[in-house]
Amino acid sequence: MKTTPQLKPSVPDAPWTLSAEATLDGLRVVPETGLELREVSDRLRLYGPNALQQAKHTAWWEILLRQFKSLIVILLAVAAGVSLAFGDWLEGGAIGLVIFFNAAIGLITELRAVRSMEALQRLSRVRTKVRRVGQLAEIPAEGVVPGDVVILEAGDLIAADLRILTASKLQTDESALTGESLPVSKRDDALSAETPLAERTNLLFKGTTITRGSGEAVVVATGMSTELGKISALLESAEQEATPLERRLDRLGRMLLWVTLVIAAAIAGLGILSGKDLFLMIETSIALAVAAIPEGLPIVATLALARGMWRMAQRNAVIRKLSAVETLGAASIICTDKTGTLTENRMAVARFVLASGAIESSEDGFRMPDGKAVTLDDPLLRAALEVGVLCNNASAAPGMEAGGGVGDPLEIALIGAADGLGLDVADLRTRHPEVREDAFDPDTQRMATFQEAPEGDLYVTVKGSPESILEICTQVLTGNGPEPLDADAKARWMETEHAMAEQGFRVLGLASKRVQDPEAPAYEDLVLLGWVALADPPRSDVRDAIERCRIAGIEVVMVTGDQPATGKSIGEAVGLVDDRRSDAVRGAELGELKDRTDTERRRLLETPVFARVSPKQKLDLIALYQEDGRVVAMTGDGVNDAPALKKADIGVAMGLRGTQVAQEAADMVLKDDAFSTIVEAVAQGRAIFANIRKFVVYLLSCNVSEILAVAVASFAGLPMPLLPLQILFLNLVTDVFPALALGAGEGDPNAMTRPPRPADEPIVAARHWRTIGLYGLLIATVVLGVLLFSIHALGLTEAQGTTIAFLTLAFAQLWHVFNMRDPGSGFARNDITKNRYVWGALGLCTVLLTAAVYLPGLSTALKTVDPGLRGWLVVLVGSLIPWALGQVLFFRRTGSP
Fold first, then answer.
1. Please, which pLDDT band fits residue 88 given cuts at 50, 70 and 90?
2. HEC profile for 770-832?
3. Alpha helices, DSSP H only, in 660-720?
């Protein structure tokens, strides 16, 4: 028995450039015996296990810690700490409880955060067949080493990068890695060094699958050295972008931080300088700091996003990260793949072009241009169908649905067309058993088969690209039999082919001849039968979905691994390519984007189709859009899409056909793989952001009213209208429930008729701050007015006056929720009055406020007393004034809050 030479192996840097023999020599392996066990151990130590680098596991406590990174949460923690430092245990404990609940909600909803590298790791957990010590063994993929000889069969998942040694009708599905939608034929010939990844037909890649044929190959790369490993490194290094909502909330938190510090310092400083008690002024400053911070904002925002996540799940969009819900609403561009997202991923014969004319596919069969149905009685059509079936390695059951069967989708489509016209495929193949096959050659773009014929000779059937078929045909089959095919006739046939290609069809040529010798050359003196046009039809709902995007100001760009002509034609079919946006750019044409001029970058930004794009180029494209201020949603289903899904503002993975890698890297997974579901999710995202803006404006205007009331009372030497714990009670109870109700609203039904928000637009814009300030001033004025009226006009005690001021402010804030209705909506019937959650919140808060006055223990903690009947009348009248004036002053004059 031969033994493996015990010399240090040489793993080739570019194995596709070497012959099979040179690759084996470098790896020091004899294919008939494989590696010795001792050599396997040595190589395992040298190269490590065949596994992708393990991503650091994110523990639950790390996810919990992330919940405390928000500036608003930090402000709350500081406020709690100051309260505890001054001995106010009740107030400090209450704020701590708020922080705890917010962190718990975030922990629960993000416990299954993105684990992209872990998903990539799971691809390695397969077994593979190798030859070692002259014996066939099945081992875990992690144990494969460079130099192992791997035995390949249809259905195998490739465990490492392999150099093919022998191949018999070998085809692989590389769509998850390269984006190629059709199976790739493999061979063992050496290739040039410039051959791109998608065209390295003598290599098999880790993570791809064998769809047909068999063969042997030698391992040339394992683990992180494989192409899949390089993608996983890209995925690990791809920077996770902060979502627009996260950036907006951080900006708001920073602003509130400075506002809180300035207010607290100013009040404390002025009070101390004026001779007031030091402890009283510090306590007052703390009260103002508490009033400035919307304690309920983190909880309300989190729960509103969670509700949006549940609502989207009902519409087949599964959100994996809460902040992604709102980000969808800000999406200004969607980068989508083609196969299976815009198209159905099902090849179908659309047209035959024969010497007698074109035969078109219809819902009820094939017809001539005049509408006349065709049958197998047409000798030209029957000859074309028979060649399509015989020069074919796919298998399919009679009456199968489109896209069914096993094998190349193109060949399945040819069988489906023949079956649909009544041709008995099984009987035809039985009567014409195959004698010889010249496998498909990527260089010549054609294949041939030799079948037995009843007359005793051999029937040669050929299919391939139109150019390759025309150059080997000398005749064309007509109604009168074969006729000469001269140069002028060939030119006319090519014109027909070009016209179909421009319509988006993939065109095949069919030819045949009769020979006596099975060794006769297959590609000489053939008779042209005609063209077959095949289409991967667009999904029926895509055109409408793209039109909705256009109306909503959202740009859609195709980023595909297919050829530019194919992508452009599909783009035209779904309304993606038009007179304004008609370019299709190959990935190889992109170059280094950073070196592009402004004009070139602008052209790329306006390009609707990018074809033959690599994983690195996808990342560059997303960065280009983000640098231009776009909020990018990226769809994908394959391993090659994972880095881009992570880099994009919103990664959208396919749930039906998507790889686990893509789904784990994405922010959203489509359960139905429908592009239209993305559009529905965008509409929901816009509604959710509008709701978030409503309750932020609501909460801040309530808090501003508290700040103004306390600040003015402090400066004027009036009794405090609110105590620190009363402020906290308002912010956590009476503010939160109405805000939650606003977040649960259905949203504006016209949201998708307006362009997306600018990526840098804050949650609270200048116009909203004006509204917040005016509402806050209005409510604070009323509160101070009732405080003075109660003490000086009604002669009530200071405790009763403070209680009345507290209740007036509380109920004024409750009625203030009706000032949050949409611009132009009706007074009595609008999005607020129709929201049943609003009415529930008002009822609950009324009960809680009553308890704050009369419930023992709670009333003691809040220092409230019974205001009496007169006091309650003052509360009722006073609390309605801000709502009434808001309706008159804001909506009548501006139509907008």
1. low
2. HHHHHHHHHHHHHHHHHHHHHHHHCCCCHHHHHHHHHHHHHHHHHHHHHHHCCCCCCCCCCCC
3. 660-665, 675-716
Angle made by CA atoms 324, 330, 333, in degrees to the nearest 5: 100
Q: Clarify whether residues 125 and 81 are in a common domain.
A: no
Element (H, E) at 318: strand 317-319
Q: Which residue among 156, 337, 562, 673 is the active-site one? A: 337
Active site residue 337: yes
User: What pLDDT score does 102 carry?
Assistant: 60
State how beta strands 609-611 and 555-559 pair: parallel
- Establish if 109 belongs to a structural domain: no
Instruction: With respect to residue 5, please indicate whether it lies within any of the assigned structural domains.
Output: no
pLDDT digits (tens, 9 = 90+) for 347-403: 889 999 999 999 988 777 788 887 888 888 899 999 999 999 999 877 665 655 554
pTM for the full predicted model: 0.61
**Torsion 366-370-375-379 (CA) sign:** negative
The pair of structure tokens assigned to 333 is 């561009």
Domain boundary among 218, 237, 256: 237
What letters, b where the CB count within 10 A reaches 16 and e where it falls short, cover 344-359? bbbbbbbbbbbbbebb
Listed residue (43, 222, 59) closest to 128, CA to CA: 222
- Distance separating alpha carbons of residues 744 and 800, to the nearest angstrom: 36
From CA 484, how far away is CA 74, in angstroms rounded? 86
**Pair 504, 586 in one domain:** no
**261 shares its domain with 301:** yes
| Residue bearing tokens 């309650």 | 872
Rounded-to-10 torsion of CA 828, 834, 835, 838: 30
> Considering the domain boundaries, does residue 832 fall inside one?
yes
C-alpha span between 792 and 781 (Å, rounded): 16
pLDDT band (50, 70, 90) for residue 269: confident
Q: Which amino acid is at 161?
A: D
Residue type at 256? L
